[in-house]
Amino acid sequence: MSGDVLTLHATCVAVEGRGVLVTGPSGSGKSSLALALMAHGARLVADDRVTLSLRDGALWASCPPAIRGMIEARGLGLLAADALDGAAVRVVVDLGQTEGMRLPPLREVTYLGRTVSLVLGQQGPHFPAALLHYVRAGRRE
């Protein structure tokens, strides 16, 4: 593991062990997207603050100990969640940007020298289900 560590205002869940890092400004829906993914079987890694580091060559997301196992649900408060210790990040979802293309190009983002896939935020009830499928099965070109 490298000594490089980065803490982001973000949320992370894992789908079958694959990390989905959700970024965006305050109020953009990071926790809401995470809760939607968790309702379909994803596991919480971290909500509100995510610590990124390098582990075995991969970008690794984990949670600061003080907030482990908690996720905010607006209007309900802090909810308990059975959290994972961490996950290798496979895709980043940027809710600070909205996807305007029907068939967007492959996008990437780099943290701590590691490049991962980037998906821009989308409106509509299909997005969490489509994102789950993207993480599980990948994308065809």
UniProtKB/TrEMBL annotation:
InterPro entries: Hpr_kin/Pase_C, P-loop_NTPase. One of its GO terms (molecular function) is kinase activity. This is HPr kinase/phosphatase C-terminal domain-containing protein. Residues 7-87 form the HPr kinase/phosphorylase C-terminal domain. It comes from the Bacteria. Keywords: Kinase, Transferase. The lineage of its organism: Bacteria, Pseudomonadati, Pseudomonadota, Alphaproteobacteria, Rhodobacterales. The keyword Transferase applies. CDD domains: HprK_C.
